[in-house]
């Protein structure tokens, strides 16, 4: 009968505990701590006796700490500088793209005088423009104001409305005379009568202080109205005179008379 041979585990040949070496390590550590304590005590005594030496040692310690921190800051500063450079490059590209983009055109706006001139071209004498018969009373007043602005008048205002006391458009002529204009948007069969002229004549000079008073209509005037206007110095502009004024074939109507004089 054969018996199996039992293998035994070889003994661990790792590092064995060395009592002598351990004792030596602790002895050296204690010696270092005692020497460090004496050194610190000596330095403290020296600093008390000679503060300058204490300041020097403190500066050396601070310098060591700062040197270690400076190395870390250098690495951080390099990273920040790199990121800053990338951001500046991106901003430069964006600014160049913005400069290359076309500038949007500003919205077109017209000053009051320019608006009157545009209205003149559209309603008074421009090729293909509608005649005055197609305008309502308010548009007719705007068209007359446009003619005044076209011919050099300043401070042109449309003042017609409730309580206007007969004045629809006021302006200053190029010669500096105050113009007060009443606009009558009438049909061909409806002429301006003497009563209309009398109501206007009662306010144009005394209330509105006109230098030149004008009545402009798309129709005509009755004979009594023309007689009254001649007596009071009111300039009458009928349909024919209005069309001639519009196309520039007649003198400006305010040149026909002044307040109180014969038309």
From TrEMBL:
Residues 133-245 form the Restriction endonuclease type IV Mrr domain. InterPro entries: Restrct_endonuc-II-like (IPR011335), Restrct_endonuc_IV_Mrr (IPR007560), tRNA_endonuc-like_dom_sf (IPR011856), Type_IV_Methyl-Rstrct_Enzyme (IPR052906). Residues 95-135 are annotated as: Disordered. The keyword Transmembrane helix applies. Keywords: Membrane, Transmembrane, Transmembrane helix. Pfam families: Mrr_cat (PF04471). One of its GO terms (molecular function) is DNA binding. GO terms for biological process: DNA restriction-modification system. PANTHER family: MRR RESTRICTION SYSTEM PROTEIN, SLL1429 PROTEIN. This is Restriction system protein. The lineage of its organism: Bacteria, Bacillati, Actinomycetota, Actinomycetes, Kitasatosporales.
């Amino acid at each position: 009968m054969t018996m199996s041979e039992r293998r035994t585990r070889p003994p661990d040949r790792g590092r064995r505990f060395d009592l002598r070496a351990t004792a030596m390590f602790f002895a050296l550590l204690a010696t270092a701590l005692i020497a460090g304590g004496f050194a610190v005590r000596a330095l403290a005594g020296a600093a008390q006796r000679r503060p300058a030496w204490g300041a020097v040692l403190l500066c050396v310690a601070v310098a060591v700490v700062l040197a270690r921190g400076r190395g870390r800051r250098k690495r951080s500063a390099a990273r920040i500088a790199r990121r800053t450079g990338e951001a500046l490059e991106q901003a430069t590209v964006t600014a160049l793209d913005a400069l290359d983009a076309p500038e949007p055109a500003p919205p077109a706006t017209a000053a009051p005088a320019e608006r009157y001139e545009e209205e003149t071209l559209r309603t008074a004498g421009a090729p293909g423009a509608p005649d005055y018969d197609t305008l309502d009373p308010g548009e007719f007043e705007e068209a007359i104001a446009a003619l005044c602005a076209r011919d050099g008048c300043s401070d042109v205002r449309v003042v017609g409305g409730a309580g206007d006391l007969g004045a629809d458009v006021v302006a200053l002529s190029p010669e500096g005379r105050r113009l007060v204009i009443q606009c009558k948007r009438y049909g061909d069969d409806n002429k301006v009568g003497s009563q209309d002229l009398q109501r206007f004549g009662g306010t144009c000079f005394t209330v509105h202080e006109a230098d030149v008073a004008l009545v402009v209509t798309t129709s005509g005037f009755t004979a009594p109205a023309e007689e009254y206007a001649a007596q009071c110095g009111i300039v009458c502009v009928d349909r024919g005179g209005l069309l001639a004024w519009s196309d520039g074939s007649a003198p400006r109507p305010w040149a026909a008379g002044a307040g109180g004089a014969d038309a």
